[in-house]
What we know:
Number of helices: 28
Strand content: 5-15%
Shape: globular
Radius of gyration: 28 Å
Largest sheet: 6 strands, parallel
Helix content: 40-55%
Number of strands: 16
Distance between the termini: 55 Å
Amino acid sequence: xxxxxxxxxxxxxxxxxxxxxxxxxxxxxxxxxxxxxxxxxxxxxxxxxxxxxxxxxxxxxxxxxxxxxxxxxxxxxxxxxxxxxxxxxxxxxxxxxxxxxxxxxxxxxxxxxxxxxxxxxxxxxxxxxxxxxxxxxxxxxxxxxxxxxxxxxxxxxxxxxxxxxxxxxxxxxxxxxxxxxxxxxxxxxxxxxxxxxxxxxxxxxxxxxxxxxxxxxxxxxxxxxxxxxxxxxxxxxxxxxxxxxxxxxxxxxxxxxxxxxxxxxxxxxxxxxxxxxxxxxxxxxxxxxxxxxxxxxxxxxxxxxxxxxxxxxxxxxxxxxxxxxxxxxxxxxxxxxxxxxxxxxxxxxxxxxxxxxxxxxxxxxxxxxxxxxxxxxxxxxxxxxxxxxxxxxxxxxxxxxxxxxxxxxxxxxxxxxxxxxxxxxxxxxxxxxxxxxxxxxxxxxxxxxxxxxxxxxxxxxxxxxxxxxxxxxxxxxxxxxxxxxxxxxxxxxxxxxxxxxxxxxxxxxxxxxxxxxxxxxxxxxxxxxxxxxxxxxxxxxxxxxxxxxxxxxxxxxxxxxxxxxxxxxxxxxxxxxxxxxxxxxxxxxxxxxxxxxxxxxxxxxxxxxxxxxxxxxxxxxxxxxxxxxxxxxxxxxxxxxxxxxxxxxxxxxxxxxxxxxxxxxxxxxxxxxxxxxxxxxxxxxxxxxxxxxxxxxxxxxxxxxxxxxxxxxxxxxxxxxxxxxx
Length: 726
């Protein structure tokens, strides 16, 4: 075995139980050795909590203290459960069940339903929206798309807090929750929704938990059977449990206390779904003899990032803030966080894209960079800016890697080639494993250069390219590995949902970024009304917004940027203010006391601020004269619904030229110019470099690179090939 086999991609399975403990810090080791009675692990961001609890389970299994089949580890996302299964497998504890609350409950429900109720389990409703819409119609309440989504979320909240339809209005009033519509009206829709489910013999995801709880409460024989199988429970992200999930956990446990919970009250950001940190904060009250371990050594972020995170929480108030953990960075010092102020949102997006491009040029992989915002609606202007800057990106939220059609097809092809061995003509002229994989996947659409396009074709190629990279890593880590060995590895990863990384800058909401990390993080749109969000009214709602920003800050390993714009659109009144959460942290807003520093020098005050851009006049529609506010409209310099005077033939010539350029550069077409930029060029038909540069989306770099060609095409010349320089 080569030295590469000790990489984090393919680590060697520890030879003994004691070897499982190697490399743990004193607090992590204390967690791993605490195998009896209730255990509460208070783990700050980046402190290695997953490492601690997986090594704890693996040590217990390898030492013969825990039987693998008797352990149930539960968490909140399929990704987290998959990561846990992957790590346990690498530690030699592959037989342990690691699932989400819903998947564990569904498995039990499917098994016990015939015995407890009889017949087949009702069909699981994948999406509630259509049925909620029908329930609203039956109640003679018309819901638009946004209201439909909000009412659906309210029904989910009611169910996980174990609130029946008749009690919903009172529960909303008691929780100081701001309902999206009249609570009585929502209660009626909720009741009708439940009626429609009964009529159609379907259940939803919340019913999976409710029905499992009901069966375990009513059928003691079934509850005893589950308790005989599972003797030990581990709950990750315990600050996010809902009352319903806690009730299910109590029923799984019975009168036993073999439970380990892990959480951080400062990362409670899902209260709108019914999550509450109360169960974590009350754990020691419920279990007076619990072992409590605090993890505060931050291995993820530089001292500069940790200093900012500690400073942010030092201003927090409320019960969760009283239990905050002050992190201590274990990394070498790095760059100071950057604070940047922009005149307007498009300028903020363009500035962010430039800095992203600079980081990539400096050697930071695109897949190790993220742009995080408060709401998904903010993504469009950043998608546009990154595309204009020629930076590849991916929106978080796609289907799981091994469930993608192209990945399943690739797996079948690789399995067939492995079975055929030397009889497969595809492998006649290739020897090493990566070359074999490339040869097989070439029949499924993989090429050594990315396709000239975006969308589904590009997504398919990226998936296959990720498999090729995985094969290359596997070959380096496992000398002499065969195609059959790789297929077995892929099967195990698919079972554990342990996917390779697809490259590209990540665009995601702060909520979607929870549990992830990157070398560089850009936190954008940090203005009052967005952070905290305008509908955060109560003190607790505002504090949850602070925790959300804390989660964003602690996603960064090395580089962190925080930015805001003074107005929404170019020429707008600069009336916006930076988020109140940055007071005392950003330059010129006062300073925090030494207690916020977490043992680090106050480098934040030396962070770089962005110079204010010269204020521009309002962007006006060149057709009707109206003020433009949307990024796409400002690029075209007209309202979306105003008539276009675009030269269609010119537009098509520009598209053909763009496709050729993209092929030569090995990039998707949008990295040359986006469709909107080409439309703007075809509408305005620039005759000089100055006129072309005035079109949003061109910029100095693209003017230098493509200006001569574009101006020639606009003048009616036929331009093919690559012609750089103006």
